[in-house]
Design a protein that fits this description.
It comes from Sarcophilus harrisii (Tasmanian devil). GO terms for molecular function: G protein-coupled receptor activity; olfactory receptor activity. It is found in: Cell membrane. Keywords: Cell membrane, G-protein coupled receptor, Membrane, Olfaction, Receptor, Sensory transduction, Transducer, Transmembrane, Transmembrane helix. There is one protein chain. By secondary structure, this protein is mainly α. The protein has one domain: Rhopdopsin 7-helix transmembrane proteins (Up-down Bundle), CATH 1.20.1070.10. It is built from 10 helices and 3 strands. A 3-stranded mixed sheet has the order 2-1-3. Helix 1 runs antiparallel to helix 2, helix 2 packs antiparallel against helix 3 and helix 3 packs parallel to helix 7. The longest helix is centred in the middle third of the chain and has 34 residues.
């Protein structure tokens, strides 16, 4: 299985999340639960926002996009992981590259969308009188189009560079899915260009968007502190606290994974970190936004009432 000629590498052997056989059932239930909650939660938010006209605002428009990205991410990773736990630990070369493509796409789209959401909160709190003008339907559509387009461009470049590599040292992926860092570690071709492009993408998409988001929140906090009433401060902060929690968790794990050279990839630690942005974050996103948002709660009640009547 190891030390193969490139022409013979038609599939990869994926080690999975854990090699401890006595824990496979426990991990299977854990990841199946995460996937079920992530899928149902994001679909429910999509339905709730779509069927409630009062929620047709920029903030919820971006929340729908976030749900679609989370569904793309978890559906790309978790089903194959569950299959791996049931005993099928191989993945074809084409399926591996496809999985990497869609995951990288969702990863880039998510960080870009976080920036768009931060800008929306910045305008809402710092420029409330001009909000309807600065965040009109055309602006929202352009921001969403930019999110999806730039993320597609990023994943297309990185995936094209991956397809140029030869895999002749080993076909054993020491991870639970096909991600760029562990795949680069397997290549017998020079990966310098790939690592440079990954680094550039991480600086631009990861650290760049993180800095813009933090700058937005610095302005937001400054504006909130100028509000005289305590109730007004609480109300203003509640509109952006959920987004700040999600962003902090997501960025810390993504930047940690991609800002380093592939040679420093450490299997066990990086697997745990990867779980956070591939499974845990998509699961928590709908819960955080739903449980902390009164408008969404009201919309959910209307949806449940509608289905009860049916």
């Amino acid at each position: 299985m190891a030390w193969m000629n490139q022409t013979l590498v038609t599939e990869f052997f994926v080690k999975g999340f854990s090699e401890a056989s006595h824990l496979q059932s426990l991990f299977f239930v854990f990841f199946l639960s995460l996937y079920t909650v992530a899928l149902s939660g994001n679909i429910l938010i999509f339905v709730t926002i779509s069927f409630n006209p009062t929620l047709h605002t920029p903030m919820y428009f971006f929340l729908v996009n976030l749900g679609l990205i989370d569904i793309l991410c978890t559906s790309t990773i978790v089903p194959k992981l569950l299959e791996n736990m049931l005993g099928r630990k191989t993945i074809s070369y084409s399926d591996c590259m496809t999985q990497m493509y869609f995951f990288t796409w969702s990863l880039g789209a998510e960080v870009l969308l976080f920036t768009a959401m931060a800008y929306d909160r910045y305008v809402a709190i710092c420029h409330p009188l001009r909000y309807s003008i600065m965040m009109n339907k055309r602006v929202c559509m352009l921001l969403a189009a930019g999110v999806w387009s730039i993320s597609i461009l990023n994943t297309s470049i990185n995936s094209s560079l991956m397809l140029r590599l030869s895999f002749c040292h080993s076909n054993v992926v020491n991870h639970f899915f096909c991600e760029i860092p562990p795949l680069l570690k397997l290549s017998c071709s020079p990966t310098y260009v790939n690592e440079i492009m990954v680094f550039i993408a991480d600086v631009f998409l990861g650290m760049g968007n993180f800095m813009i988001t933090m700058l937005s929140y610095a302005c937001i906090i400054s504006s909130i502190l100028k509000i005289r009433s305590t109730e007004g401060k609480k109300r203003a902060f509640s509109t952006c606290s959920s987004h700040l929690i999600v962003v902090s968790v997501y960025y810390s794990t993504v930047i940690y994974t991609y800002i380093r050279p592939s040679s420093s990839y450490s299997s066990d630690k990086d697997k745990v970190v990867s779980v956070i942005y591939t499974s845990v974050a998509p699961t928590l996103n709908p819960l955080i936004y739903t449980l902390r948002n009164k408008d969404v709660k009201v919309g959910l009640k209307k949806v449940f009432s509608f289905f009860k009547r049916c």
